[in-house]
Design goal:
Elements: H1 7-23, H2 26-31, H3 39-47, H4 66-79, H5 85-96, H6 101-111, E1 117-119, E2 129-132, E3 140-145, E4 148-153, E5 171-174, E6 180-185, H7 187-223, E7 227-228, E8 231-232, H8 237-265, H9 271-297, H10 308-320, H11 326-337, H12 358-374, H13 377-382, H14 392-400, H15 419-431, H16 437-452, H17 455-466, E9 472-475, E10 491-494, E11 500-507, E12 517-523, E13 534-540, E14 546-553, E15 557-569, E16 574-575, H18 581-592, H19 598-614, E17 616-617, E18 620-621, H20 626-654, H21 662-684, H22 696-707, H23 717-728
Parallel strand pairs: 1-3, 9-12
Antiparallel strand pairs: 2-5, 3-4, 4-6, 7-8, 10-11, 11-15, 12-13, 13-16, 14-15, 17-18
Length: 736
């Protein structure tokens, strides 16, 4: 797995960034506003080799890949470069594929910046009158007419510039009147143009991602300067939380485009749909990002003095030359669920890699084999997504096979499996429909004992956990404080003999009814600031004074409220220093906050697709309807995005890079989309989805109820938004 650009690509990005910071500064963008085209910048880009990136070396180009072009386009978007860059990149590659002298002569002029060549996005036999990006300044347009690749010359009388939304060089052209030359014909010509169109979609998606990120950066910087009611406006959650949502969406959009490039290179079946989803998602995200960024500026954002309005207008203008973005989602739906095929461009070399690796695959295979051998029909019938699916016998067998905690050190019964392998393990649990709640929670508590526990605790408790003879639950939340763990009131009082007495209660102690131990957050000093007087303990739940009372949720699962009345535990069961619980808890929350719900989202979409194939709408299968395909495609996009955000968080942590809030991004995005899509897919398949009968309908029904808690446990969405705002956008602290 790798999310870093190659050294050469990093140098190229820096080179383009330096050039465009100067030659496409906001002053230059404003200066080119009347025409939407900056000829000097265009010439400079050509001299840097920008337009030759995707042209084969044999034709005078650099012969680089899609990822290299994406590096350029991100900078083009960030700086609002004035000219049809994406279209010209595609046109250059198409011209290079043609042997005709006229095409080669035009290519030479294009590469030197002496000619602007754009593309017509729709077949001109079907749509001779159409809008063309850069059409007001282009010397020529490449177009498709059925199976012909045409070169259309644009004399001055055909290029009619007019006022438009963002003052780009867009123009509505009657291409039937343009002088034409057939460059190629037949299946190869048609395929080449179709591949070019898919490349254009990807390049524009990345440009919109760069534009969106810069708009949010401008908004965040302003929010760190502007005060209202005596506070920087960035400290208000009404400002910071929407920006946190959007930077997560923007990051996801860029990562999805990169995954698409990787999947094209690997010839993955879903790559064609991912192209459509990438441009659809980045178009939608850009619209929302620039609107919220402008809103952050308030009334000033409406004035032409502030640059944010330039981003607002370009975000809408660039993609709408293609038409309604909803068509792209429908296209993704057809590609995913109706068998439509896409002609995809050659990707070239791709350094970005989302693969978990051979070690992860081997461990996943071994675990699959274990479950296939161990899970009888009776056990599979017992399965549940919560602690209710726990089976002590299976848990014990996992420990014996050293598959219970594979990431632990060998001395603790593990295999020292890397994070990538553990991600593969989590996929296996989802695919086998076997609950991992007891395993994941116990693993987290076990790691705390390894890091902070006494030798006595390790000997008496950790040994049982390693052997698969004990599981653990979490005792953070209390009836009165919820996610504000620093407000915990459960007391731990030191006794004369050095032991501790615990009194209080904990809410949502899931698994306490079957667990042997609970990781307990207590208050040990009420006379200091609340975050300084906390201490963590391991509390045996069979100790006298512990009462466990069931609390049932409408998600068909049991949680608990637990009471502690004079519960005595030895000092050896303390984790970390007295009053040093924040350090221990921070380590625990770091482990808990990185998770997401991509696997649950994927299972939900697969169930919804199955149900859409089983039920009818007006005499046809529901899956045959374009609206059903589009809604399934949207939910698919969300789980793709959750997955790539999760992979980045996984890689970032494995590389020991600074905490940029990538774990909270994964949890926030995946839980919010799981909640939204579970409701939408329940609607789509209604009334069948109301049933709890075994099968796809019952599973969708369960997903809707399951998703309700996903934005709450493991840290609420509001907590994660604050973390993202502070870490990813450098906004002021928004939590007391």
């Amino acid at each position: 797995m790798n999310f870093d650009l190659s050294e050469e690509q990093q140098m190229m990005r820096e080179s383009f960034a330096r050039f465009l910071d100067e030659e496409s500064s906001m002053a230059r963008v404003r200066a080119a506003w009347s025409t939407g085209f900056d000829a000097a910048m265009w010439k400079g880009l050509a001299e840097l080799g920008a337009f030759s990136l995707r042209v084969p070396e044999a034709a005078g180009g650099l012969g680089l890949g899609l990822l290299d072009a994406a590096v350029l386009m991100e900078e083009v978007g960030r700086t609002l470069a004035s000219g049809p860059v994406a279209e010209t990149l595609v046109a250059a590659r198409l011209l290079a594929a043609v042997a005709q002298p006229e095409a080669r002569a035009l290519l030479d002029k294009l590469l030197s910046g002496d000619a602007v060549v754009s593309i017509a996005l729709h077949d001109i036999e079907q749509q001779p009158l159409q809008w063309v990006a850069g059409g007001a300044v282009a010397d020529a347009v490449l177009a498709r007419a059925q199976d012909q690749l045409l070169l259309l010359s644009l004399p001055a009388e055909l290029r009619k510039a007019e006022e438009n939304l963002a003052q780009t060089a867009i123009a509505e052209l009657d291409l039937s009147r343009a002088p034409r030359r057939v460059l190629a014909s037949g299946g190869e010509a048609s395929r080449a143009f179709a591949q070019g169109l898919e490349e254009w979609k990807l390049l524009l998606a990345v440009a919109l991602s760069g534009l969106s990120r810069e708009a949010l950066r401008l908004a965040a910087a302003y929010a760190c300067e502007r005060s209202a009611f005596g506070q920087l406006i960035g400290s208000y959650q009404g400002i910071s939380h929407p920006l946190a949502d959007l930077i997560t969406d923007v990051d996801g959009g860029k990562l999805l485009a990169l995954k698409t490039i990787r999947d094209i290179a690997d010839a993955k079946a879903e790559a064609g749909a991912e192209v459509s989803l990438s441009i659809w998602w980045n178009t939608d995200t850009a619209t929302r990002a620039v609107a919220q960024a402008l809103h952050t500026f308030g009334g000033y954002g409406l004035t032409t003095e502030y640059d944010i309005h330039l981003y607002n207008l370009r975000a809408k203008a660039w993609p709408l030359v293609y038409g309604d973005p909803a068509h792209l989602l429908e296209e993704a739906g057809r590609r995913l669920f109706a068998g439509e095929q896409a002609e995809l461009p050659e990707a070239g070399a791709v350094s970005i890699d989302f693969d978990l690796g051979e070690e992860a695959q081997a461990l996943a295979h071994e675990l699959h084999e274990f479950f296939n051998k161990t899970l009888t029909p009776e056990l599979r019938a017992k399965a549940h997504y919560s602690f209710d699916g726990f089976d002590a016998g299976v848990h014990k067998k996992l420990a014996e096979a050293r598959l219970l905690f594979p990431n632990w050190e060998v001395q603790y019964g593990g295999r020292k499996a890397p994070p990538y392998a553990m991600s593969a393990v989590a996929h296996v649990y989802e695919e086998q429909n076997w609950s991992s709640h007891a395993v994941s929670t116990t693993s987290m508590v076990g790691v705390m004992m390894q890091r902070f526990g006494s030798e006595q605790l390790k000997r008496e408790v950790l040994s049982k956990v390693i052997a698969g003879e004990a599981i653990c639950s979490l005792g953070y939340s209390e009836p009165s404080c919820g996610s504000d763990v620093f407000a915990a009131q459960t007391r731990a009082t030191r006794e004369a003999d050095g032991s501790w007495r615990i009194d209080g209660s904990k809410m949502f102690t899931s698994g306490a009814n079957i667990a042997e131990y609970v990781l307990m957050l207590t208050r040990t000093n009420p006379d200091v600031p609340k975050h300084k007087g906390l201490t963590m303990f391991i509390v045996p739940l069979k100790t006298p004074g512990v009462t466990i009372q069931p609390v049932y949720t409408f998600q068909d699962e049991r949680t608990n409220i637990t009471y502690y009345d004079g519960v005595k535990i030895p000092d050896a069961y303390r984790l970390g220093e007295v009053d040093g619980g924040v350090k221990v808890m921070a380590s625990a929350l770091e482990l808990e906050h990185g998770g997401g719900f991509a696997r649950a989202q994927k299972a939900m979409v697969l169930a919804a697709e199955k149900l859409c194939r089983e039920v009818s709408w007006r005499g046809q299968p529901l899956i045959a309807q374009s609206f059903a395909q589009a809604r399934l495609a949207r939910a698919t996009a969300h789980y793709f995005l959750s997955e790539v955000l999760g992979h980045r968080a996984l890689w970032w942590g494995a590389q020991k890079k600074p905490n940029m809030g990538y774990g909270p991004m994964t949890k926030l995005f995946s839980s919010e989309k799981f909640l939204k899509d579970s409701a939408d897919l329940l609607d789509l398949t209604a009334p069948h989805s109301l049933s709890k009968r075994v099968g796809a309908a019952g599973f969708l029904n369960q997903c809707y109820r399951h998703a309700q808690g996903s934005t709450i446990y493991g840290g609420t969405s509001e907590v994660h938004r604050s973390q993202i705002a502070e870490r990813a956008l450098n906004l002021p602290r928004t939590r007391a």
